[in-house]
């Protein structure tokens, strides 16, 4: 596997479903897409309800607070204040990190 990000291919959702289907012919593409949608909605709802998600080996999804901070408009260079916000953060687990480095 290449470590150069410019050489890595990005998969959209449909391509990801096809990729999974090629490696798992026991499920139809429709079943894979339904399962993927269910997982994604589950992550969204859990985060929305104040839960962090820890999947051993894969990684963790959690919410982090970002305080308001100074920034600048990249087009005009004008100073702006970026408002405080909450952001979802993903931290990869050991198995996922190892897969990336093989």
From TrEMBL:
GO terms for MF: DNA binding; structural constituent of chromatin
GO biological process: chromosome condensation
Superkingdom of origin organism: Bacteria
Sorted UniProt keywords: DNA condensation, DNA-binding
Record-linked InterPro entries: Hist_DNA-bd, Histone-like_DNA-bd_CS, IHF-like_DNA-bd_dom_sf
SMART domains recorded: BHL
Residue intervals passing through the bilayer: none
Family membership noted in the UniProt record: Belongs to the bacterial histone-like protein family.
Alphabetical list of PANTHER family matching this protein: DNA-BINDING PROTEIN HU (PTHR33175), DNA-BINDING PROTEIN HU-BETA (PTHR33175:SF3)
Descriptive protein name: Bacterial DNA-binding family protein
Organism, as annotated: Orientia tsutsugamushi str. UT144
């Amino acid at each position: 596997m290449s470590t150069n990000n410019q050489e890595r291919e990005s998969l959209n959702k449909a391509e990801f479903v096809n990729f999974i289907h090629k490696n798992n012919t026991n499920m139809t593409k429709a079943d894979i897409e339904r399962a993927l949608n269910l997982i994604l909605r589950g992550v969204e709802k859990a985060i929305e309800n104040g839960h962090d998600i820890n999947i051993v080996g894969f990684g963790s999804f959690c919410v982090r607070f970002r305080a308001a901070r100074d920034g600048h408009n990249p087009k005009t260079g004008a100073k702006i204040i970026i408002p405080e916000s909450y952001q979802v953060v993903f931290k990869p687990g050991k198995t996922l990190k190892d897969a990336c480095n093989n």
